[in-house]
Specification:
heterodimer; A: mainly alpha; Fumarate Reductase Cytochrome B subunit; 2 strands; B: 2 domains; four-stranded mixed sheet; 11 strands
Chain lengths: 231, 312
């Protein structure tokens, strides 16, 4: 299949986009595992992955703050690509066609489809909520200094926001497995023109007309170099 | 009275545990209760000293806050504190209300409900709610769960502490240290039945003395407590340094730790399965082969030359 040829192809995710994504992804996975351990007793054995129950309690918030920092960078960089457009609404209305792989019936979409954009906005909404509520219940640093009503509500909000975020994460991971070529895009950067045309036609056309470029970064030395020395 | 709650089969409730606690033992362990008769308390704080002595805790010497309360609040080393309040009654007379504040040993403990560590908080058949510090992970959620604001977090070891009702003494058939030391018998200890009887008798006596609203404080909102007060003004518990009028586990804690947790956990598992089943029924989403039109394919390769990032 064409998308297996990643040496040529459109650069969908540059090196920093990929690195940024995977730092957030690894952190998020660790947060999910350690958080679930304290979320419901059925998951308590996950504490074993972090060196023990108390170690899990200690580590979780530090990973959370670290992830938030990287997430903010990612969210800013991804912002423009995730603004909801009219064709996204139509795409969402045809979610049954999406799920049934009847792709020929779908409207063409930009760099991200509406599902990806929703994942973006849900994470953008839940991560700050998780950060704030998490800091409030963080011992020994902050929780002792907040009123009990706030502590109680923050703990509740943290659990619900985490639930929403984890469900979204599961959908996000599954979509990557489901849509062939997307894991390769996020690990190696490139997609085939056929992939781009099929899944993200408007983005593909923009690139064809030179109105957009692949995810190259003028700030990175490698990008500047290759611009200067076209093969 | 048998005080054998430390037998592991007499643990009747356990934090963060889905499966039931041991069930086969029937009776044999009587419920215990500590009764604090506020009308008899003279505020000598001997109970505070006895508590520190027995539990081998030595709190930091604090500052004088201009009131008798010392320490000013519960700490991880002070499991109980006498709270003094000056109350002006309807006749304009001053009443000095002194309440020994410590864990109430709720029948339905909020701390146990909130705790995420299996077995870190247990409830014995005799009604005592105990913190098993060995399993405590130091999250402090017990503080959020408690409707009486009792547990305290230790900066020394990041674990939570509270009154144990001297479970170790009760195990050996002794009364709690505070009860043992009280010079006016303001603190009594015995079976729940005896203590409620004795409390009713005290309430009768107080009513005879003109305290029409005297009563036992044994709040139903937490299923009753294994520490009960005899109050001169049971209709206004809040005048006793803010004793909760109708304490119950906060709705936020119920929403946080209630039935929603197993439901949400099941939904998470189901969503993973849904993905898998979708994959095996609908199959992967794949694009067709690369552009068969050589012109388009050529243009596509042209683009490849434009974008950045090194490639071999």
């Amino acid at each position: 299949m064409s998308h297996s040829n990643v040496k040529s192809g459109i650069l969908r995710y540059g090196w920093w986009t990929r690195l940024n994504h995977w730092i957030v992804a690894i952190s998020f996975t660790l947060l999910t595992l350690s958080g679930l351990a304290l979320f419901y007793p059925g998951f308590y054995s996950f504490t074993g992955l972090f060196g023990g129950p108390e170690e899990t309690r200690i580590l979780h918030p530090y990973i959370g703050v670290f992830m938030t920092l990287l997430f903010v960078i990612q969210a800013v960089r991804f912002f423009r690509d995730n603004l909801i457009r009219r064709h996204d609404v139509q795409w969402l209305k045809q979610i049954r066609d999406v799920l049934s792989n009847r792709d020929d019936r779908l409207p063409p979409v930009g760099k991200n489809n509406a599902g990806q954009k929703l994942v973006y906005w849900i994470f953008l909404a839940t991560v700050p909520v998780l950060l704030v509520s998490g800091v409030i219940i963080w011992r020994p640093w902050f929780a002792e200094d907040v009123p009990l009503w706030l502590h109680r509500n923050a703990a509740m909000v943290h659990a619900y926001a985490a639930f929403i975020a984890i469900v979204t994460l599961i959908i996000h991971i599954y979509s990557a497995i489901w849509v062939k070529g997307s894991i390769r895009a996020m690990t190696q950067g490139r997609v085939s023109p056929a992939w781009a045309r099929h899944h993200h036609k408007l983005w593909y056309e923009d690139i064809m007309r030179g109105r957009a470029r692949g995810d190259d970064h003028a700030s990175t030395p490698s990008a500047r170099e290759s611009t200067r020395n076209p093969r | 009275m048998r005080g054998d709650q430390i037998n592991l089969q007499n643990i009747v409730a356990r934090s963060a545990s889905i499966t039931p606690s041991p069930q086969v033992r029937q009776g044999g362990v009587e419920q215990v209760t500590k009764l604090i008769d506020v009308s008899v308390c003279i505020g000598c704080k001997a109970c505070q000293v006895a508590c520190m002595e027995w539990n081998n805790t030595r709190d930091e010497v604090g500052h004088c806050h201009g009131v008798y309360d010392n320490p000013i609040d519960l700490t991880a080393e002070s499991f109980e504190v006498m709270r003094f309040s000056e109350y002006e009654n309807e006749e304009g007379d001053l009443e000095w209300l002194i309440r020994k504040d410590n864990c109430m040993h709720c029948a339905e403990p909020g701390c146990l409900k909130a705790c995420p560590a299996p077995g870190a908080i247990v409830q014995y058949a005799n009604g005592i709610v105990d913190f098993n510090s060995e399993h405590c992970i130091g999250c402090g959620y017990c503080r959020a769960g408690c409707p009486f604001d009792i547990p305290r977090y230790s900066e020394r070891d990041n674990k939570a502490y509270k009154c144990t009702l001297c479970s170790d003494r009760v195990y050996h058939g002794l009364e709690p240290a505070c009860v043992k030391t009280c010079p006016t018998s303001a603190i009594m200890f015995g079976t729940r039945e005896d203590m409620l009887d004795y409390g009713a008798h005290r309430v009768e006596h107080l009513k005879g003395r003109g305290y029409e609203n005297a009563g036992i404080y044994n709040p139903a909102g937490v299923g009753g407590t294994h520490v009960v007060y005899v109050l001169q003004h049971a209709d206004k518990p809040e005048i006793y340094s803010g004793l909760a009028k109708d304490p119950q586990i906060s709705p936020a804690v119920e929403a946080w730790k209630g039935i929603t947790k197993p439901i949400m956990s099941a939904v998470l598992g189901a969503s993973v399965l849904a993905g898998f089943f979708h994959y095996v029924t609908k199959g992967p989403k794949e694009e067709p082969e690369d552009d068969p039109d050589p012109e388009n394919a050529g243009r596509a390769r042209e683009i490849d030359r434009h974008d950045g990032e090194d490639r071999p």
